[in-house]
Amino acid sequence: MELLSYDFVQRGILTGVTVGIVSAIAGVFLILRRMSFLGAGLSHAAFGGIALSMLLGVEPFLFTSIFTILVGNLVQVLIYHRRVPGDAAIALVFSGGVALAVLILGIVKGFGEYIFSYLFGNILIVTREELYFSLVSSALVLLFFIVFYKKLVLLSFSEELAKLKGVNLTLMNHLLVSVSSLVIVMAIKAVGIILASSMIVIPALTALLMGSSFLSAVIVSTGVSLVSVVAGIALAFYYDLPPSGTIVGAMIFLFGLAFLRRAFSS
Amino acid sequence: MELLSYDFVQRGILTGVTVGIVSAIAGVFLILRRMSFLGAGLSHAAFGGIALSMLLGVEPFLFTSIFTILVGNLVQVLIYHRRVPGDAAIALVFSGGVALAVLILGIVKGFGEYIFSYLFGNILIVTREELYFSLVSSALVLLFFIVFYKKLVLLSFSEELAKLKGVNLTLMNHLLVSVSSLVIVMAIKAVGIILASSMIVIPALTALLMGSSFLSAVIVSTGVSLVSVVAGIALAFYYDLPPSGTIVGAMIFLFGLAFLRRAFSS
Amino acid sequence: MRFLLVLILIPLITTAKEFVLVSVYPFYDVLKELSGDRFRVEVLIPPKADYHLYELSSKEIKKISQARLVFVSGIPLGGWERKVEEISGNRAFKLAEGIELKSSGEHGGVKTDPHIWLSPKRMMLVAENAYKAFVKLEPDKEDIYRENLRKVLDKLKELDRDYRENLKSCKHRVIPIPHPALGYLAQDYGLSQLSIGSGDVHGDISPIELSRFISEVKEKGINFMFEIYGARSKYADVFTKEYNLRIYRLNVKIIPSEHGKDYFSIMRYNLKVLREALECM
Amino acid sequence: MYVVEAENLSFSYDGKVNTLENVNFKVKKGEFIGIVGPNGAGKTTLFRIILGFLKPTGGKVKLFGTDIKHFKEWNRIGYVPQKLNVEQNFPATVRELLSLVAGRERIKDIADFLHIDFYIDRQFLKLSGGQQQLVLLGMAIASEPELLLLDEPTAGLDIHAQMHITQILRELSTNEGKTVLMISHDLGLVLKNVDKVLCINRSVHYYGEPDEALDTIEELFGIRRGIKNGTP
Amino acid sequence: MYVVEAENLSFSYDGKVNTLENVNFKVKKGEFIGIVGPNGAGKTTLFRIILGFLKPTGGKVKLFGTDIKHFKEWNRIGYVPQKLNVEQNFPATVRELLSLVAGRERIKDIADFLHIDFYIDRQFLKLSGGQQQLVLLGMAIASEPELLLLDEPTAGLDIHAQMHITQILRELSTNEGKTVLMISHDLGLVLKNVDKVLCINRSVHYYGEPDEALDTIEELFGIRRGIKNGTP
Ligand SMILES: Nc1ncnc2c1ncn2[C@@H]1O[C@H](COP(=O)(O)OP(=O)(O)OP(=O)(O)O)[C@@H](O)[C@H]1O
Ligand SMILES: Nc1ncnc2c1ncn2[C@@H]1O[C@H](COP(=O)(O)OP(=O)(O)OP(=O)(O)O)[C@@H](O)[C@H]1O
Ligand SMILES: [Mg+2]
Ligand SMILES: [Mg+2]
Ligand SMILES: [Zn+2]
Predict the structure, then answer these.
(1) Other chains touching C, judged by 3 or more CB pairs under 8 Å
(2) Tally of domains within chain E
(3) N or C, fewer C-beta in 10 Å, chain D?
(4) R_g of chain C, CA atoms, integer Å
(5) Cβ of D43 below 6 Å from ligand 1
């Protein structure tokens, strides 16, 4: 595995593992907050952000991060302050982002940028800056989940009860979507726009099938994600396949196992 | 509007209108069956189907229709017979379809360019066969919704109560996903894979914001969809924009209006 | 002054409806020379567009239905070119007809390499093809077209000669470029292309092709790499830093710019870049 | 022929602890049965088995003489669940809901009957808890089913409505020969109105006339704390 | 200083019909208030206004002397909702839920106290309706709030648990000075245990000692059918 000796490949694996951990944790909370598809929504919205960044001629990664965080918070404002159903708000930014991208592509016909390369990620080529960005962001995200763990669990149980237990709903909700948006941007880096949501949702779903308590669900989710990232990258090297496909494939495979286990046990 | 005199453009508009009607109706039921994202899931799964059809060298449209209907029914089997949560089943085929497509793209290098044209359909170029397919399918879909209207409403209210009122749950559920899959395939034709779900979900969401009864919700949804398709195509012609973007843009605009109306009334 | 304006406008007005269409910019200049003042030549999609992944707009569709002839690469360049062929029906003409094509990348694949214009040698065949199309459209004007063809072939031959001579004795004979656009150029001028074939634009990357690319670059002691002008690419960022590769940008899409205003001048600019990178004498 | 028969019925959610064990009882046509038992006794579970939503792990259940494995005529049964999760934004009005299971005339009757007529054109989801409960009851009886399974139908109802409903059920059973199974924690209400009481706590502790039920019931709820290692 | 004060409180869901109109009452520290009223009277609505989930359309509410517009110390309040929609597959166990609001010692106390100890390590969603209700009550009192708002806390509970809970609430109020507002349709239970009864039907019909409440209550539920054109 000579490839492993390349710096940028090592960086890619490191990025994958980091993103795997934080997206697995974020996923559990998002699913229980009835926002399973926030990942899908935001990653597609990010598509609009990327198109916009190219239209404006600014650095896409940073711009898209900010754009996605803003959109995530817009979703939250719609849901929480304006009482739009969660599904609706998410579907809206999903469609809105893509429509924006399509329109921009249509207006500025071909600005020659390979915008489509963002649709499928490229975890094997990660620059040093991107790695640092991922590491720092992941550390922040992890810190957030550790510090606010209890408040977040309470929030997923019931917003109303959480409020009465002194949780600042507005703040916590906005922090959660902001953090999730950051995770999404990192996941896009790893597996691309249309697979980013898988990293958020599949390990968490697997965990919810298996977990017998909240904490165990979080742990299982992280475990599933880590195993999938590592196994996926290994498979990709061995059989010369696209890593995004193999990583998500591994996640789906593990979900299948968890599912069969449950189906047979009852 | 000289363009309107071209056969293929007329066919495109007709297709758009037909697809608009059926997707608007299907959307209401899907949202209330907690499958808002079935559209997104199936259209992304269809992506895998298209890749597969190219790998196998068969006719993509027909193959993808069958593939998508099968996947839709798989979702239903998972949800209903295996008690996998709806979100999970949908997220699974979403990810699975894309991962399949990515892997096929990775194995058989060089399909990219053909497959990409499915990501953002093109309603302006519709062959006669495609139009006939859409018309016949839409008629079938419409018939389904009319004949089983009451059973479907009952089903969306509560599966358990529906069963006791003599609704054959298995049959009805499978019919509903099959019909929805067909609608998705038509929507992909009209606005492409990543915007197909918007046609299903945005008009229906708008209607659910406004509707004061079930029937009125269905009617409003259809209305919103029709207006959006026609206005979208007109805009696309007038400003030379991609129709998929303008159609979905118009839908989002109407949703915004409905939303503001509600926000101001209360 | 006024007189001048009228002079310029007259041909525009009179030939307003009489035009032929070409799907992408790189073929434009050759076709323009061929058509002379018989037809206006228009390009279907913008020069900067990503012609591998493109969708037609309503204006473009309208244009297609109005053109007398619609030239497409016929390879095709992307799925959209198929649609152009469909819409234009019997007015479509494939420029690559009869030209020997190869698959993209060095290690096979199902996809045919569409970048024929980057080899002046093949461009001559394109010109001859296009000539046939014009003659078929207006058999009575054959003389004019033959004369035009001769002129354009002369220009292409000169370009071909420049390429041959300037690339004859270079220090390096390998042209590394992640997106395999230089296959025909390499084949026709005794060079060998090194690319990541499938990766880049059209999906996630193949790990083995990536590692082959890098190890060959290392092995051969190459310290430069080509990239495509007007397109952002991660490879350039990573490889410059990692291996101190110098990045040379070729105007692959023949975008009119400071490099030149037409195919011929841009191709000469590309040659200059190639010479510099390959250290040709 | 019995309307409901349970024979050696057992059920377990996880394959380890039995939630129901060896449950036997028979219900004749026209009987009004009150089902009581402490929280977690398995009452709701029993209903869900009878309705075919859960499969028994042992024994069998017959409806109208047919084993539920083969039973198909579900529309002979009306059901009010203990909990109903309706999708938020579900737009249907009460009238629309009733029209799914009854004709225009019958809707009018039901609405008058249950005193729900003055909110019949409002959306179901915008009703108060008790109002929703009444509408569900209306849907259950609208299609004139022969067997009614009601899981705490009076929970959340005001005293007026509670009495009213119980009276309606009493009449349905006495006058129209409907068979009614009602779970309730309101012992007063149950003992006063039903024909037979079924006391359940994992297994059947008492099944018979209400008069003699009280002892068992008191014992049942008294010993509740003693069965720590069991299901409840 | 009063714990809860409502002054000319009005509320409307749709801007047309008033669900609550001109509601006035004051609750002192340590009082145990029973809130009764027919279905759709506005009881749940009142709670949701007090808790800040709905904004009053007229008048005001004060909590611990502070207008709810500016009130921030929500953790001084415990709440048991009438209905709770928890996401399916929510994996937390009872112990995990309690640990969100209380320390280890307190969890043990609560569990013993409410007799929920033998299912404390099971997942919340796999409990029976009554068991869930008890857990919610446990969460509400775990953090020792000064004010408890309970929306039909005994609905769905067995008689044993009902009595037990009522007794606990009585003690919390008498011995520990907690203020308790409890909505209930169980008049017997209410009249026997509370300090004051608040009869609501759009507006306040009675507020005072339980002994004299009965007349008003009977009248209230009796006239229920008369107010067809009003809110209820
Ligand atoms: N989905 C489930 N998975 C596992 N155990 C369950 C599930 N639902 C209920 N139980 C358990 O089975 C037992 C019986 O529950 P059931 O809901 O039948 O009780 P019940 O008699 O209806 O109680 P209540 O009066 O509180 O409604 C309880 O111990 C409960 O915790
Ligand atoms: N979200 C809502 N939108 C519109 N109207 C509502 C909404 N929720 C309740 N209502 C109406 O407001 C009135 C009061 O409802 P509320 O839930 O406060 O009654 P309640 O006293 O708690 O009744 P119950 O004893 O049945 O729980 C009812 O007429 C109800 O239909
Ligand atoms: Mg129960
Ligand atoms: Mg209430
Ligand atoms: Zn190219």
Answers:
(1) A, B
(2) 1
(3) N
(4) 20
(5) yes
What range defines the domain where residue E37 resides?
4-83+147-229
Instruction: Classify B147 as helix, strand or coil.
Output: helix
CB count within 10 Å of CB B152 equals 24
State the Cα–Cα distance between residues B205 and B199, nearest whole angstrom. Answer: 10
For residue C244, the model assigns a pLDDT of 81
CATH number of the domain encompassing residue B210: 1.10.3470.10
Mutation site, B28, B83, B164, interface D, largest D CB count within 10 A: B164
Fold entry, domain C169-278? Rossmann fold (3.40.50)
Pairing of strands C246-250, C224-228: parallel
The answer to whether B57 contacts chain C (CB < 8 Å) is: no
Distance from CA of B57 to the nearest CA of C (A): 12
Distance CA E178, CA E141 (A): 10
Is there a domain that residue E58 lies in? yes
d(CA C264, CA C153): 12
* Tens of pLDDT, residues C45-55: 888 887 887 87
Peptide bond into C178 cis (omega under 30): no
How confident is the model over B104-132, as pLDDT tens digits? 877 776 666 666 677 777 787 778 888 89
Name all chains with 3 or more CB-CB pairs below 8 Å to chain E: A, B, D
Compute, in angstroms, the gap from residue C43 CA to the centroid of ligand 5.
18
For position D158, which CATH number holds? 3.40.50.300
Does pLDDT of D223 surpass 50? Answer: no
Kindly report the protein residue whose alpha carbon is nearest to atom 16 of ligand 1: D42
Residues in chain E predicted with pLDDT less than 50, given as ranges, are 223-232
Helices assigned H by DSSP within chain D:
43-50, 94-99, 104-113, 129-142, 159-176, 187-193, 213-222
pLDDT at B113: 63
Looking at residue D228, the DSSP 8-state letter turns out to be T
CB A175 within 8 A of CB A182: no
Residue D157 CA, ligand 2 centroid: distance in Å: 13
**Owning domain of residue A225:** 3-260
Do C19-161 and C169-278 show the same overall fold? yes
B and A touch with 3+ CB pairs <8 Å, answer: yes
Is the pLDDT score of C9 beyond 60? no
Task: Give the model's confidence band at B191: pLDDT under 50 very low, under 70 low, under 90 confident, else very high.
Answer: confident
Tell which wins on pLDDT, B209 or E226.
B209
For residue C52, the CA-to-ligand 5 centroid distance in Å is 6
Tokens linked to B134: 């859409």
Confirm whether D102 is domain-assigned.
no
- What class, spelled out in words, does domain C19-161 have in CATH? alpha beta
Strands (E), B133-188: none
pLDDT at C12 over 50: no
Disruptive mutation site among B98, B244, B266 for chain A (greatest number of A CBs within 10 Å): B98
Residues of A in contact with D89 (CB under 8 A): 85
Chain C: residues touching B (Cβ < 8 Å): 52-53, 55-59, 61-62, 65, 76-80, 82-83, 86-87, 103-105, 109-111, 197-198, 201-204, 206
- Asked whether residue D125 is assigned to any structural domain, the reply reads no
Quick check: B160 and D53 CB within 8 A? yes
- Does residue B212 sit at the E interface (CB-CB below 8 Å)? no
Q: Which residues of A fall within a CB distance of 8 Å from D14?
A: 266
Query: CB–CB of D37/D201 below 8 Å?
Result: yes
Q: What is the pTM of this model?
A: 0.85
Does residue A71 sit within a domain? yes
Half-sphere exposure of B97 (CA within 13 A, CB side): 32
Helices B112-119, B86-107: axis angle to 10 degrees equals 150
Residue nearest atom 27 in ligand 1 by C-alpha distance = E129
DSSP B15-36: HHHHHHHHHHHHHHHHHHTT-T
